[in-house]
Structure formats: structure tokens, C-alpha cells
Amino acid sequence: MSMEKLLMQVALVDQVTKPLQGITQQVQQTADAGRDGLQQMATGAAGLAATGFAVKNALMPAIEMDRKLGEVKSLGVHEEALQSLQSTALEFSAEYGKSAVEFTGAAYDIQSAIAGLKGDELAQFTKASGVLAAATKSDTATITDYMGTMYGIFKNQANEIGKAEWVQDVAGKTATAVQMFKTTGSEMSRAFESLGADANSAGISMNEQMAILGQLQATMSGSEAGTKYRAFLAGVGKAQDQLGLKFTDAQGNMLPMMQILDQLKGRYGETLEVAESVELNKAFGSTEATAMLKLLMSDADGLAQNIEKLGQVKGMSQAEQMAADMTDEWERLESSWFAIRAAAFGAILPSINAIVGSVANGITTLTEWTNQYPLLGEVMGYAAIAALSLGGVVSLLSLAMGIGKFMSAGWAITMSTLGGAMRMLRAGMMLMTAATWAMNAALFANPITWIVLAVVALIGAVAAMIYYWDDLKATFGDMAIFQMLGDVIDWVIEKLNMIPGIDIEWRANEMPDMPDASTTQQVEQAKTAEQAAPPVPSVEHLTKQPRGLEQGGEPNAYDADLISYKNPDNIARPPQSVVNNINGNSRREGDRISQFGDVHIHSEKPMTPQDMAEWEELNVGG
Length: 622
Prior knowledge:
mainly alpha
């Protein structure tokens, strides 16, 4: 390639790579700027969100309390009653470890069920319900419904003694009944819900109603106890007429249960027989009433004591004691922390609510503007979409750059992993080699291995001796040491044949005998004499006349040799001792001569006179 072409290519490369480098640098700068911007946006948004969540989390107790107080306020409760309710809720939460928010929510149900609560009566009703719920292992909502039911039944008594004092008595009596009759606040609530106001309308005191319902719950549920008690009240007027007994006083109010039981015992005794039960069923008009009377008659003295005990309960000290005994200190700690935050941030919550309200009002105004001016809303929408799209482009560019780096890193990891795998493979091969050497060492350290190798070597040696036995015997057959070797080989073969799987039939001493040393020496002498004899002229020389005689002259040296050879006295013969030995050996080995019968020679053309002459010349001196 010429220098001009090379310089031209270099210039073209420079012209292409420089702009590409600039473009790459610009793309990288754009991606970096976009990434930094996104990171700043994400950091700012995360910080703003974290700040918002932190503020909201700090204000949440006050916010939750404010929500529940707002619900109660919607029922027409004055601000003074709301402040008393909030203070009582926080004190109750810190003292018993219960939720102040749930306490405040229960006030809404109480205010809905009991109209006309004034001052701190709402707070007292709610506190009594909360304490009774804690004392009887019931939820606040269930006890709140119970208090509403009891106020509906004993409204007149509550108004006579005062709602706050009455509700505390109800809480104390109910807690005592739960403790006495091994029931729960929920079951007592169901019992009074089933009974309704029938007993109170008949002039029966709360103490007696609660004692009867509690004693019946020893063998049945609260709702079933209320149903049986109600059946008895419904049939008591009819029963007194049929039985000829008096169950009501002069004012028409029913007599206390103990007086009714005493009249029945005077008529039927301590227990009721089958016929007596049938009579009572007919008198009261139901089996539920008779079942209740049987149960109460069996323990009339206990019923009297329970009624008296419940009548002595004043206030809710018993309920408070039971609630305190079941208070969890860890729950108290958590509730106390909640109460502190609710109280502290509750003071500034109105100001914060004003700011939040202003922001909400601004958003509302902006919403109204977009409705009034559709073009403004459209422009704002397009601006928001454009901003988001620009951010998406930058994010896409950063994504592409990130994918490229990720692929490069992945390729590097792949190559590193592959290299590690190859190193592990190499280590594995080294371990295999070491294991192989160790196994070989263990094998050669075992005497059995050497015995096996010796047997294999011995078999190989015997096989080699068998293969080369003919040559060895031809060479060393006349040596005594060799004959002993044959005996040793035969002995080794016999021992090897004792090994399973080896069966060698060959034997050294069973091979044919080789010629003895004298015969071999005579053969060698015959060969030596034959080599010493003058060469025999070829047939061509024998069939021709002497050259000199053929040309009519004197015979030359070659002709003289030929004439001398044809002389019968000059025919070469082996020594007489060799001939005698050969003849003797021939006679000793006559048994090895094979007979083939007559031999006939056939020729395709008859012999010519010249052939006959040559035949005769060949047999000269024979």
C-alpha cells in the first residue's frame, strides 16, 4: 500500500472517529445530567414524603382523637363536654392501657342511645362503660350497647338518682355479678336484652333481676336465661289463679322471687315431681317457666344471699379493681405515649388544620378554575405531560446507558465465573491425579498386588518360551542345561494350570527329538566338501563341443577344463566317511520315508536326438 493511500485512510478514520467521540461524550454528559437530575428529584421527593409522613405520624394521635371528637360533636354535644370527654379518654387510656380513640368512639354510641346527657355525664357514662369492659373482658362497643339497654330499662331510676351515679352503680353491680356467677359482661348483656323491660315493669328491682339471670347462667347461656325469666313473668298472673296462690301485692306488682318460691315449696315441697311439673307447665303455660322455677328452688338460699350482696354494691369500685387487676403495664406504656402525643399536638392541631385547610381550599379553587376556564386546564395538562415526557426521555437514555454498563459488567462476571470454573476443574484434575497416585501406592503396598504381577510375568515368560521353543531347541538341544530348562518349564506349566481359567496343554519334553550332534556334524562336513568341489558347468557348456575342436584347431584352456570335467575319474565325490554316515543315518531313519508309488513324467513334446545327447552327457560317470 502506498504512503498516500495510508495517509488518506488515516485521515478518513480521524474525520469519522472525532465526531463520534464528540457525540458519545455528549450522550454521556446528557445521561449523567439526567441521572443527577433524577437522583435529585428522587431525593427531594423522598425527603418531602418522609417529612410529610413524619409530621403526620407525630400528629396522628391528635388527628385520630380530633376525628372521633368531631363525630361526637355532630350529635350536638357542646364544646365543654367534648373537652371533658377528651381529658377523660386520655386519663382512662393511661390508667388502664386501653385505646383513647376507641373510648372516644364509644361516646358517640352512648350519646346516640342516651339523650339529654349534660356536662360531664357523657364522659362519666363512657368511662363506666370502658372500665366495665376492661373488668369483664369485653369490648367497649358491647358494653356500650349494654349500658344503653340498661338505661332504657331503668331510665326512671337513673333519672331519680342521677345518670352519673346510676351508671357507676350499674358498672359495679354488673362486675360483681360477673365475678359471682362466673359469666362475662357479654353474656349479661345478652340476658338483659332477652329479658327486656318486663321485670322492671312488674316492679322487680335491678338487684333481683341481675341475681336471677346470673344464677340461671350457671347451666345455660345469657340469652336463654333471659328467655326463661321472661316466660315466667308472662305466665305468673294466670298461674296464681289456677294454683290458688298469690304472686302479686295489692298494687299489682309481683312479689319478690323469694316469697313466690316459699309459696311453691309449701305446696310441692323442696323438689317437683313429674305430675307437679306438668301442673306447673299448665298453670304458667310454658315449660321455660317451670324449668326456671326448678333451678331456683334447688338453691333458694343462695339466691337470697346473691340478691342481698348485689344490693350492697354502690359505685364502680369493684369494677375498677377488677379492671386494674387485668391491666397490662406494657399496654399502659404504649397508651401513655399515645396520650402524650395526642395532648401535646392536640394543642397546635387547630393551627395546623387551618394551614392544611388553606391548602385544600387552594386546590379546590384551582379545580374550580379549571372547570371555569377549560383552556387553562388544557394548558396545565399539556405542561405536565411535557415535563413527564422529558423526564421519561432522560430516564430512557439513562436506562440505555445503564443497560450497556450492565451488559459489560455481566460479560466480565461471566468470564470471571468461567475462569473460576476452569480453575476449579484444574484443581479437580489435580485432586484426581493425587487420588490415582494414592490408589496406585496403596495397590503396590499390598502384597497381593505383587503376587498377581509375578504370576502375570511368569505367564508372559512361559508364553515367550513356548513361542521361541523350536529355535531354542535347535540351538541348545544338545546341552544338559537346556534339558533341565524343559523340565522347569513343564513344572511351571503344571502349577499355572492349577489357577482357575488357565489351561496350557503344551509341554517341552513332549516335542519331537532334534538330530543328535554327530548327525549335525556329518551334515556340516558334507556341505563343506560340496563347497570345495569345482563348479559344475552349465548345461549350455556341456552340450557344446570344445571351441578349438569345433574350429579345427587346438583346444584352449576352457576346452581343457571341459574335457577334464567330462572325464569319469575327475567327477567330484564326497568323502567316504560322510557317505557312510549319511547311508547309516538314512538306514536308521528309514521309518520316516514316505512312499508315493510310481512317478510318471509327461512331456508335451518328445525328446529330440540332441536332447538325448545332452541327457547322456549329464549322466557321464554316473
